[in-house]
Design a protein that fits this description.
By secondary structure, the chain is of the alpha/beta class. The protein has 11 helices and 12 strands. The strands form 5 sheets. A 3-stranded parallel sheet has the order 1-2-3, with helices on one face. It starts with 8 loop residues before the first helix and ends in a 7-residue tail after the last strand.
């Protein structure tokens, strides 16, 4: 593989208005518009907002609608309205991934120029014999169908220190394999677009759910290939239902009530190990929560939260 070169300037360049912003953390919340905002997503939004605000930083909302097959019409707007009802509004215009395809094309073209990606026709059934881990050579010969594109992973351990989950190590070649960055239908995958977006938006602190902890080494690998900075990472405990399943829109998680935000805000603060202010107004409660925010109080384990799934 050739030595990585600089990524095109249009990917690395921040908008001019961002260059004049005061120094400080830049955090983000990046939901997928596949349904209404539920309690697990509220915890992630509030945790990332508190972390950014407690460091006098900025908080950005990005709508991850890159997968048009999963996006629900109107869901993105509903999520933004719900966040606003909870006092959580983006400090900058909301970015929609479906409107940023040129950035992803530029990053993919750079990976191709580096010889870091290759076309692949392997199916999941082909990879079953390898426990789903794609080796450096395809198991199926090329045919006339459109291929997916995989990135070659490093034959070494990738490590990073998470602010909550401590040191995390992963051998991509043994535990993940060469992974897809562009699907056979032409859509770019989460692993590539999140790396591009975090760099293009100048994100310095990624605060998100612990279900994405083991995706981070893949993202660091892409950052290294593309010559992009690696932000800090903080993975919040997952919200589980009483049966131990992660809350998700696909599993019919009950949406939070935008008409009565205080109970869910108090519950989310408690879930994050934070002292719940006594304020009866959303804006005052959030101000007090920022002042009292204690990152060391956030639990490192997933927790159950009762009555958060639809009947």
């Amino acid at each position: 593989m050739r030595k990585p070169e600089a990524l095109p300037a249009e990917l690395l360049a921040l908008p001019a208005e961002l260059l004049a912003l005061p120094a400080g953390p830049r955090g983000r919340f990046a939901p997928s518009p596949t349904g209404n905002l539920h309690f697990g997503s509220l915890v992630a939004a509030l945790g990332s907002w508190l972390h950014a605000r407690s460091g006098q930083g900025r908080w950005i909302v990005r709508m991850e609608d890159i997968d048009s097959t999963r996006s629900v019409p109107g869901a993105g707007e509903n999520i933004l309205a719900t966040l606003a009802a909870f006092g959580l509004e983006s400090d900058e215009p909301v970015a929609w991934q479906s409107q940023r395809l040129d950035l992803y094309e530029a990053a993919f073209a750079r990976l191709q120029a580096l010889g870091a990606v290759y076309p692949c026709h392997c199916s999941r059934s082909d990879l079953a014999a390898c426990n789903g881990i794609h080796p450096h050579a395809c198991l199926r010969s090329a045919d006339s169908s459109a291929p997916a594109w995989r990135v070659r992973v490093a034959d070494r351990e990738i490590s990073f220190t998470d602010r909550i989950c401590a040191r995390f190590n992963q051998r991509l070649d043994r535990e993940v394999g060469d992974f897809v960055v562009r699907r056979a239908d032409g859509l770019f995958t989460y692993q590539l677009v999140v790396v591009v977006d975090d760099a293009a938006q100048g994100i310095s602190e990624v605060v998100r759910g612990a279900d994405l902890l083991d995706s981070t080494p893949r993202q660091i690998h892409l950052q290294e290939l593309l010559g992009l900075p690696t932000p800090g990472y903080l993975h919040l405990p997952l919200v589980l239902d009483p049966s131990g399943r992660k809350l998700s829109k696909q599993e019919q998680a009950r949406p939070v009530d935008a008409g009565d935000p205080l109970p869910a805000l108090h519950a989310a603060l408690a879930f994050l190990g934070q002292r719940a202010p006594a304020s009866k107004r959303v804006d005052a409660l959030l101000r007090e929560a920022v002042h009292a925010f204690d990152i060391d109080a956030i639990p490192a384990r997933p927790l159950a939260h009762a009555a958060m799934r639809k009947d």
